[in-house]
Design a protein that fits this description.
This protein is α/β, with parallel strands linked by helices. The chain has 16 helices and 13 strands. The chain has a seven-stranded parallel beta sheet, sandwiched between helices. It has a six-stranded parallel beta sheet with strand order 10-9-8-11-12-13, with helices on both faces.
């Protein structure tokens, strides 16, 4: 009779990014979860919430929709270790960014290092078999502590290789100086703070026993810079294919709605998208930008009357917004693997993406892949799909099929397998 495994894995991620929550769910379902260390985690209405719902029901309903993103019924609440401090600092940091205050970077360092320090102090008490640490938050204290205690460390790398980003920054500063200041959106681009973050991310790569990356592009970049191939596991993300679905009433015709979704920043290639759109726009075609504009849109202003700015929408609205479009365009310059690209596939959208977007789109099958920062190639790809409704329809069917093969249960299984491998193969 086979003895059940008793391995226990600690997961740490302060925000509510889907890959972190889904990793926790997968490990919990496999009976491998020790604990989930995060920032704020919503545990239901409670007495104060009940009172608020009576006093200000509309405002409370809006707040609850936001809070609900910090909750998943499949996560065992008893194993969540939550802290409010990280989120309080993050909100304060956002306020400082809007005012262009230089103290912003100091607050960012404080909240990151505090979470790291608290996590490192928890390790000797919990003594898990392994720790799955998401990017940035374990670099200074937690990963070294794992080595001291003999705890296997697994890094979930949610961004691209920072040495590649440094090249992107240098190129953009020279070729797109007007958009460079909104590379990350709000506030001035603090290169010193970014260098501090890059140093942490390089330390992550060096200290982790195992590295999970969401795309082949990131894996190949790490290997090019000297990381051992055997240390890396490629585990793509996924979409909720039950909520994100094609519109069954859609008809592919001469009209075409192109959709961009994400932060409207230069890191996402927004300048190149807007310039490509100027080259191809025509009657019956629309470009929609779904996401928040920077508080000071600066160079974007000259383009905004040519596009539809949808702004931020609730997560519940996203499936319908996406399914109503015809082509998803995401010309990112630097990325981990954007979950929104999987959601677009699930909605049956032909896609135009860069290799850097971390998408699982195959060139010529579910969409077209173009080089980052190349306006001519981007415009050409968008125009090809806009002018060919039959091709869009074929790609739509392929996109949905592709999404169904990259669902969250597959991700659960892959993360569980990688965690067990990290424990079983210490060399």
């Amino acid at each position: 009779m086979t003895t059940p495994r008793t391995d226990r894995i600690l997961v740490a991620c302060p925000d509510a990014r889907p890959p972190a929550y889904q990793a926790v769910i997968g490990l919990a379902q496999a009976n491998l979860l020790h604990s989930f260390h995060t920032a704020y985690y919503y545990r239901g209405v409670g007495r104060l919430g009940t009172l608020a719902s009576r006093v200000a029901p509309e405002r409370f309903a809006r707040l609850q929709r936001t809070l609900a993103r910090r909750f998943d019924p499949k996560i065992p609440g008893a194993q969540v270790r939550a802290s409010w401090g990280y989120d309080v600092a993050l909100r304060f940091e956002e306020q400082l960014a809007r005012r262009g205050h230089r103290a912003r970077s100091g607050v960012a360092r404080w909240r990151t290092e505090r979470f790291d320090r608290q996590l490192a102090r928890a390790l000797p008490r919990h003594r898990p078999d392994a720790a799955l640490i998401f990017s940035d938050v374990g670099s200074q204290y937690t990963l070294p502590r794992c080595r001291e205690l003999g705890i296997r460390s697994i890094l979930s790398m949610v961004h691209g290789d920072v040495r590649e980003e440094q090249q992107v920054l240098e190129r953009e500063a020279e070729t797109a100086p007007d958009f460079f200041r909104i590379y990350l959106g709000d506030g001035s681009l603090d290169l010193e703070a970014l260098a501090w973050l890059h140093d942490r991310r390089l330390r992550d790569i060096d200290l982790a026993d195992r590295i999970l990356v969401p795309s082949d592009h990131i894996a190949e970049t790490l290997i090019r810079y000297g990381t051992n191939r055997d240390k890396i596991a490629v585990i793509p993300y996924a979409a909720d294919t039950h909520h994100f679905r094609p519109d069954p009433a859609k008809r592919h015709d001469e009209s075409c709605t192109f959709l961009f979704a994400g932060g409207i920043t230069q890191r996402k290639g927004i300048k190149y998208l807007l310039e490509a759109w100027r080259r191809i726009r025509r009657p019956g075609w629309r470009l929609q930008l779904l996401g928040g504009l920077p508080s000071d849109p600066g160079p974007l202003v000259d383009y905004l009357d040519e596009v539809e700015v949808l702004g931020r929408v609730s997560h519940a609205e996203m499936p319908a917004r996406m399914a109503a479009a015809d082509v998803f365009v995401f010309p990112s310059l630097f990325e981990g693997s954007a979950v929104v690209t999987y959601e677009a596939l699930a909605c049956g959208l032909a896609s135009v993406v860069t290799p850097d977007a971390g998408s699982v789109v195959r060139d010529g099958v579910e969409g077209l892949i173009v080089p980052p920062g190349n306006v001519e190639r981007l415009a050409e790809a968008m125009e090809q799909l806009g002018l060919d409704p039959n091709r869009r329809e074929q790609m739509s069917v392929a996109a949905r099929t592709r999404a169904e093969s990259f669902d969250w249960p597959r991700y659960h299984s892959a993360v569980t397998g990688a965690a067990r491998h990290a424990i079983d193969c210490p060399g």
